[in-house]
């Protein structure tokens, strides 16, 4: 078992001056990339509060874009990401907003492309992050666990059909819905890994509209 150094405990190994504003931003971008799971045509980053006020100085904007492009927190290309060819894969812009209802380090990713999607998350300190919403559904996952995300029609026994098919210990389960019998979401964080065959099987279940299997982020 790898022993953690005092540096690892205080802050993740990263490029940039701030764990919450830089490393957290990269990790939020990585999770949003895995949820969207397609090449967007355009992305709008909406930065809130502290992210909006000090994000440029701390490289938050660079970190968010770098994560969305698949770069890790210790990738030295983050410093010059706006000048690299990799950053020209899609159109993007940044907006800066103050809203006391949002976390100090909050961001919305607004995706436009093969499908439109809004993903909202917070950087909560020491590089730790939480995805809070996908479109209008509340979710909660951090990148610490492999996570199964499903959007489905709210019908009886759907939760049991999904959980009985996984055969992996569930760390947490969060469900939300628009209204009874309408579109709903299920966020299942897992202690282990599941096979692609399980994901394919779940995709055959009637009334499931979308499935994402989001691998945990590297520590």
UniProtKB/TrEMBL annotation:
The keyword Glycoprotein does not apply. Its EC number is 4.3.1.17. It is an enzyme of class 4 (lyase). Keywords: 4Fe-4S, Gluconeogenesis, Iron, Iron-sulfur, Lyase, Metal-binding. Residues 5-81 form the Serine dehydratase beta chain domain. CDD domains: ACT_LSD. GO terms for molecular function: 4 iron, 4 sulfur cluster binding; L-serine ammonia-lyase activity; metal ion binding. It catalyses: L-serine = pyruvate + NH4(+). One of its GO terms (biological process) is gluconeogenesis. Its cofactor is [4Fe-4S] cluster. PANTHER family: L-SERINE DEHYDRATASE, L-SERINE DEHYDRATASE, BETA CHAIN-RELATED. Belongs to the iron-sulfur dependent L-serine dehydratase family. This is L-serine ammonia-lyase.
